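Let us begin with a simple case.
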Amino acid sequence: MANRPFATTAPSTTIAPLHAGATTKRKAGANARRRPARRETALLGVVALLFAAAIAIARSGWYTAESELGYWLGVAGGVAMLALFAYPLRKRWHAMREIGSTRFWFALHMSLGIAGPLLIILHSTLALGSLNATIAFASMTVVAASGIVGRYLYGRIHNGLYGRRETLAELRAQAGIDSAALHSKLALLGPVETRLVEFARLAEAAERAGLSRPLRFMTLGVRAMLARRWCVGSATRSLCKLAEAQGWTDDKRDRRIAVFSTFIGAYLQAVQRVAQFGVFERLFSWWHVLHVPLVFMLVLSAIAHVVAVHMY
């Protein structure tokens, strides 16, 4: 399991020299893993600002849902919501698979999933007078919220925003991170190695328990953050003492500290992802089962709303 790499080799008495190329690759890999998270955080921030602006405009009183502007905003929002079906249709209709890439269609699906609700909010002016309008708006809100949840779960089991689906075997290999070399380098930092082993065992227990122990599962990220902070601090203190004893230059000491910090952070992140992967994969499959009927409920309520508006 995730904690086995620490028991594979006998402790050495010195810290092995670190290869510059391996260090650069490791740092590049760590940065590559951070970039998707930063992009997603920035995207969520932009979406939140757009919805805040849409709500402010809708409540401004500049127009009504019955005005010409309000009417065409509703039409545009309805078309955007209907166009969301292009993505699942492409996956199931062989003739459409040759049109564009999967990445393009997924990006379009996400964009329409944001644009549609924004336009509907602007159209409604958040003044829901009739029962059918209230049901349609509530259905759209539930589906949009479901889409955000689905995007979060998608990101936990895929590599990057539009990345391919990761496998448990790949994550376990990543968690091993050059196990023999890692054990050798941590040999003189006994407390750090002990803390990493403890976290690996905790993560393994969380993996086995799954959703039967939700608190253990949900707090694993916080525990990883605390473990990283403690391990990096302990490693820094130990390396400073070692640098003083062996006469390292300040530059050499700082480089060693940076490498160990990257090592520790990458290992903890990989072990955490291994432990949470199975649960997120299960939740994503359940989300699919729930999301489809919600979408059909939205379509039916939207059709009822359009018919009622044009008949009465």
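The second case is a distinct protein. As before, the sequence precedes its structure tokens.
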Amino acid sequence: MTVTISRLYDDYATASQAVRDLEAAGLRAEDVSIVASNADNWYRDDRSGRTARVDRDHDGTDDRAEGAETGAGIGAVVAGAAGLLAGLGIIAIPGIGPVVAAGWLASTAAGVVAGGAVGGIIGALTQAGVSKEDAHVYAEGVRRGGTLVSARVPDAERSRYEAIFDRSAVNIRERGEAYRKEGWTGFDPNAAPYSAEQARRERDTYAQSGANRPL
């Protein structure tokens, strides 16, 4: 029997490290999924089907090339990506906009959207066993610039994998409460996607407050 574990991270770099740690711990790439905001256009698909541009530092140079040259920093992280992270692509999710995604959850969300269901990512998460309340917070977190990682794990090993997830994940209960204090009532698939500046401000707010403690 398998169970689904999902966690929100404030940035792609932290989430991608969690993915690598999960794979290193024994999870197959096909059992892990990642959905990351692309509000600030850090991932740019050249639409050729062969390559994609990754420029999170916005210096005009593909970070993977920089990583190959320097062996450190953001570029090295991307250059070293394997497994699930090697299959990233862009899909559009109503209420979030373009996201960089890979894995089974992304495929399910895309299928729900194609089928005309409202809130593709909410439907995908609830189908996977995530509570509706948590699904709304996860979706809103991605809309605001975050990254969602989900994995199907053996029930008997749930605690071991949760420990890996929780090293640097957002405390979803506290984050949901913070959203509600702003007047937020739930994820709206008709809402306008966040701009690059809004996403950066959101990340900076929680980075400065330290409000990203794990569960």
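The CA atoms of residues 96 and 143 lie 5 Å apart. The longest strand covers residues 2-9.
Keep these points in mind for the review questions at the end of the chapter.
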